[in-house]
Task: inverse folding
């Protein structure tokens, strides 16, 4: 076992991107969505990055037919279904929209 950092709340979700690398999402103890991914260097991982949030643990990652990834979760306060999609294939950091932006648009507060 190799530690990848944290602290996160189980369960985590793992997806397989269009380039064949794994990507991991987890909810941190403060409710922020965290993301890391395998790098082309064998056995190496990116640093954790914040994706915003306010989510409950228990995310779901699916791969589209075109190889892009879709992420779903439930807002911790709103209890709304939240969605984020990879906006560019093969770009581990290219995800749209930010979760807070999505929630604001749906509630009419933008």
Result:
């Amino acid at each position: 076992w190799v530690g990848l950092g944290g602290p996160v709340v189980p369960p985590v979700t793992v997806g397989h991107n269009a380039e064949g690398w794994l990507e991991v999402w987890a909810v941190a103890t403060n409710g922020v969505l965290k993301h890391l991914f395998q790098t082309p260097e064998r056995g190496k991982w990116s640093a954790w990055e914040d994706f915003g949030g306010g989510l409950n643990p228990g995310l779901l990652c699916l791969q589209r037919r075109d190889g892009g990834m879709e992420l779903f979760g439930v807002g911790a306060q709103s209890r709304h279904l939240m969605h984020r999609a990879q906006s560019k294939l093969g770009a581990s950091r290219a995800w749209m929209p930010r979760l807070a932006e999505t929630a604001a648009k749906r509630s009419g507060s933008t």
Notes: The first strand starts at residue 8 and ends at 16. The beta strands are 8-16, 22-28, 32-37, 49-53, 60-63, 69-74, 81-86, 95-96. The mean pLDDT is 80.
